[in-house]
Write a structure and sequence with these properties.
mainly beta; Thrombin, subunit H; four-stranded antiparallel β-sheet; three-stranded antiparallel β-sheet
Length: 120
């Protein structure tokens, strides 16, 4: 589905010779980037998938059990459209925000850094 109009892009949800998705969002959150967390800053997240979204304006943590999603947690919501998510060498997570949202129009792309609070 086109997440702006709600109109179907095509009629098929599955196709012969292709694996179906393991996890979907309806409506689409507009996934823009993802990573498997391998750092030490957030040890409880190690091995989890961190997903950034434009339309959903959220950062989502997916805990996996093998190839299945066991748990979905929204880490951040409503701070603006997230263009990408990356893990720095020190294990800190960085978000590239959409420069057109939340008053950033024309400014350089804001980078948000997530750091642990010290509580585990």
């Amino acid at each position: 589905m086109n997440y702006r109009t709600g109109i179907a892009i095509h009629g098929a949800t599955h196709q012969d010779g292709m694996e179906p998705p393991v996890h979907i969002w309806v409506p689409s959150i507009g996934v823009t980037g993802m990573l498997f967390y391998t750092g030490d800053a957030f040890p409880d997240w190690r091995g989890d998938m961190i997903v950034a979204s434009l339309r959903g304006e959220q950062l989502v943590r997916l805990t996996l059990d093998g190839q299945q999603v066991a748990r979905e947690e929204i880490l951040i919501h409503g701070i603006g459209r997230i263009r990408d998510v990356r893990q720095g060498p020190e294990g800190i997570i960085y978000l590239a925000m959409d420069g057109d949202a939340r008053g950033f129009d024309g400014d350089p792309t804001p980078i948000v850094r997530l750091i642990p609070t010290g509580a585990r």
